[in-house]
Description:
- The protein has a two-stranded parallel sheet.
- The protein has one domain (10-118).
- The protein contains eight helices and two strands, in the order βαβααααααα.
- It is mainly alpha-helical.
Amino acid sequence: MGRTWKPEQIMSDFETSLIPAVSAEFPESAHKGCYFHFNQCMYRRIQLLGLATAYSQDESVRSCCRKLMALPLLPIQEVKTSFYNLCATADPAVKKQLRDLFLYFDDYWINNISIEMWNVHDYQHRTNNICE
């Protein structure tokens, strides 16, 4: 047939082996992470850090976590500032409880995975499955 598939956009989850594979195979395609999977990663980290009970029972903790989960919805140029403002202005008790979550977010989502990958601000379809 002689056709080459050149998708303009690709949306996936955040598996570490998948990201470079997609970039290598489709270097001219915009590769975005799925917002549902971003939030799933965040909640799994909340559980891993032993914060699930605090998340479900403490409104201040839940609110702060939900603000972290909403960062992909902001204009890309506001994400870093908003994250650092959230860390700086969190209630001292919440800040202490969420210290490891903030460190994880800064290390992984701010400094390891490009913000362009997980930011879905201008995207009509923010997930790769409308059922999610």
